[in-house]
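Researcher: Sequence of uroporphyrinogen-III C-methyltransferase follows. Predict its structure.
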Amino acid sequence: MSVKAKVYLVGAGPGNPLYLTRKAERCIQQADVILYDQLVHPFILQLSDPKAEWIHVGKTPYTKYIKQDRINALLVEKASQHQTVVRLKGGDPAIFGRVVEEVETLKAHGIDFEIVPGITAASAAVSQLGRGLTERNVSTNITFTTGHFKENEENDIDITTLEHNGTLAIYMGIKRLPIIMNQIKTHIQKDFPVVVIFNASRHDQFIISGTVHTIIDQLSQLPERIGPGITIVGDVARDIRSDASLPLVPNVVLLKGPRAQCLSRAYELYEEGKVAYLDYRDDEHYHRTQREKITELIHQSTIQAIEQF
Ligand code: SAH
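Model: Prediction complete. Tokens:
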């Protein structure tokens, strides 16, 4: 006997757990299994039922991608075994989130699905700058683009928005930024303001500000692998100050005790700009995958405090 499954393709926002929609939170709470990407904040996973299975399907530094086909197959497999499957993606699933590949697979198998939008990185980034993606008399249009192309493709990106008083938001473009900045220099004479925001909205956010001519030099002084970064080019990026105090290893508060109390305390801590996790490493009520993930996380963190309720 099988129950009719539903797959939710959910946007988890830019990382800060407070930037999760209510709908996303409800999906996560109801999930039997969650397939999540690398950029999803682990505390967001902790909102799930203790019995839910967590499966990491993202790319981690030093390892290869799980192929999209493999993720599609896993979605179908899990939907045949469970009632509620959540596919959790960073930001908004409809922006460089490959959501349509997954939707096509689900449709082909007659599996019910729903897309739940999330706050995309560009929106999170400009909110931190106190600017708009569009601004009256400053920027009247916006292009979301990416610096990441399939192997061996040396495509130019579409920068026409900059010729029309627009804003360019470049996802996944940090590595290729020198090429992109050269492209802009070659085609447009104006030295536009550029801001790169890493880890936007998260405790370890930092901002590098410059222009098309200077930004690469500034970026070259940063350590490698500092988290996801988005580049904003255009007049909305003018007069922004760099802010690059880098907390390398997160200072974490561990919460132990009754779940409801721990969750509400965690939200308070996130409001204060801290990082908190529920510590249930030794609690057998939690699914093995949840205990393993939290054990691994704690090993990678510096523990600032333990609060027991
Ligand atoms: N669907 C996601 C984007 C996925 S592509 C969204 O809507 O945001 C991954 C890229 O998004 C990263 O390489 C980076 O450019 C950007 N990104 C995601 N989260 C970010 C964050 N918190 N801060 C800065 N950039 C982020």
